[in-house]
């Protein structure tokens, strides 16, 4: 008689426990155990509980390959959800096997788990395990389906697929909900107190392992509802006219004061702060260094000489690398929206900036269109105060449109959704890249589904409050993706390509490169452990399918993008993974700002010592970066904390 000790941990989350019967079957190289009901006196699987059981077998099973969890009806109780964190099994000889689960199990079903040791497909040879990988991925691909949201968009998740899946026929378990016709336009409707329509049907279906936790949902509601209610009571949500004076805006936001908001209130109209925002504001990726002026911006030395002073000239400053351009070309043909019956206006400006001898970046000239001529004057700091201020205001308006639609929503939210989808569809739970990326894709599918239901839907918030509306958003995102490159995606390459290595006080660049280096070092250790050679990368068919799917659905097979569609070396894999993790965490924090900190891995998907040591070293390095940032910020009039590691979310989740 061989006795195996089984320890089952239920997650500590709200409603994580179950009243259903839970049984277990152990599968080893020498056979499998009988199906054993896990039952002790009292409730077995309460939230946060750790319960121990014995499974008796006639003979030892050899090396454990799989553990089957069976969830079945108990008496007359209705079926419920159970969050199983992990199962540990101790063999008769004392060998301990860890089976990570960390997922919701719904309905009555059987879930197969593998030991926690990460393995690529090349490291599996047993038909049983190869078949397990195939069945797992087929189930996921049936559950997580691609959908085209709009022409030129990255692929998104098709939430309607969740309700179609039968729980006992799929590997990735989902919550079943009553069917709602996705083609029913009446689902896109106004709700009391909301000024825009909300696509309700799309919010009803969300696979439980990718939706917000109860804690996350409560946190969002706690922050969002009072803010929305406050704006409603103060008339902001229903306002249809123009602002009459700046004090009106201050009165709206009087209860949301921060060090940054107070600083902006005092300095927003100053040229030095205008330039500072290109370095450390919410869109710090616009600047390109110029060696010569583009023909579409005919600025002459005489125009800018009063600002440059007598000891230099425009050509000299160009040669020194002190002249920079922010070009909003993408807005030139953007559709324009109507709000409250009034046509709106959009500028496509060219903003020339100068790095002065004091180390401050200041605007030098502004042209509000892409076509020079009498109808498109060049505005200068020597113009009247109000003309110059109005020109800068138009630039900031264009900055908002490019930042929110492209830098923020496209380059973090939509691309990270595509990474999450490809990871779920092409990499099994035991794959090392799946384990690595899982914390950095958590909640992304949920938050993007909410965004499409409330912001991007017809007559949603984008249609109600922006000058380009939904059609303009679709145009901007598709146009931006058509021009987006791998160089843009990788921070060190982007900094070099834009020629902004030497600008002082560029905290986004400095902090971002340190975070990038820390992620790269961590990823290099993980990749080096599982991929010791070029051949190990090239022969991993699951990895190659994953990168191909990203190339196909995120970047629409555009060869000119420079994104890989095949990985040939560990170095290529390290760079790609580093860029994905950076953009899913630090870049999103920089362009969205401030929950679960970068480097936090509460679920123990990696069970081997080597990757666990790498995680610890990564966390130590991030802590050191945080101390350095906080020390630097003590000497800054306006602290830059967007890339302080404790303030960087692990994933795009808000």
UniProtKB/TrEMBL annotation:
Coiled coil: none annotated. The keyword GTP-binding does not apply. Keywords: Dioxygenase, Iron, Lipid metabolism, Metal-binding, Oxidoreductase. Residues 2-119 form the PLAT domain. InterPro entries: LipOase (IPR000907), LipOase_C (IPR013819), LipOase_C_sf (IPR036226), LipOase_CS (IPR020834), LipOase_Fe_BS (IPR020833), PLAT/LH2_dom (IPR001024), PLAT/LH2_dom_sf (IPR036392), PLAT_LOX_verte (IPR042062). One of its GO terms (molecular function) is metal ion binding. Residues 119-601, 602-654 form the Lipoxygenase domain. Its cofactor is Fe cation. Pfam families: Lipoxygenase, PLAT. CDD domains: PLAT_LOX (cd01753). One of its GO terms (biological process) is arachidonate metabolic process. Pathway: Lipid metabolism; hydroperoxy eicosatetraenoic acid biosynthesis. Belongs to the lipoxygenase family. This is Arachidonate epidermal lipoxygenase 3. The gene is ALOXE3.
